[in-house]
Specification:
Strand content: under 5%
Order of helices and strands: EEHHHHH
Structural class: mainly alpha
Number of strands: 2
Helix content: over 70%
Largest sheet: 2 strands, antiparallel
Number of domains: 1
Strand order of the largest sheet: 1-2
Radius of gyration: 33 Å
Oligomer: single chain
Number of helices: 5
């Protein structure tokens, strides 16, 4: 800290910061900088096509295995049974609540609304991931 002539207050010596900033702003040119940059870009670009194909094929394989597991576990039959029960319940309970409006509601409409909400949530998540 250097003492200023005005009242003896101490002020920081900023000449070091100015010199350091000037030295980093004016880096000396290297003779092989273009070759180095070209090699780095080549290494970065080289594997992306292979990576994309590998990740995509693993995703397809995982989706096929998941679909086989779901179909093998009898999930479709369980979904159909739940849909039939929900259709009976909504027809029985929902018709009395919606009778004055004349709106017909059944289990398939509720399941379709749930499916549309899931698709909208998936699209929203994809948009969020793209923004990040």
């Amino acid at each position: 800290m250097a003492r200023a002539a005005n009242g003896g207050r101490s002020v920081p010596d900023t000449s070091f910061e100015f010199n350091l900033e000037r030295m980093f702003a004016e880096t000396p040119p290297r003779p092989d900088s273009d070759l180095f940059a070209a090699r780095v870009l080549e290494k970065l670009d080289r594997g992306w096509t292979t990576r994309r194909l590998l990740i995509g094929s693993m995703g397809v394989l995982g989706g096929l295995v998941g679909a086989y597991q779901i179909l093998g576990a009898g999930a479709l039959q369980q979904i159909e049974a739940v849909a039939a029960r929900s259709n009976d319940f909504i027809t029985r309970e929902g018709s009395s609540a919606l009778a004055p409006t004349g709106l017909v509601l059944d289990g398939q409409a509720v399941l379709m609304a749930a499916a549309v909400m899931l698709v909208a949530a998936g699209l929203g998540l994809a948009r969020l991931m793209r923004e990040i």
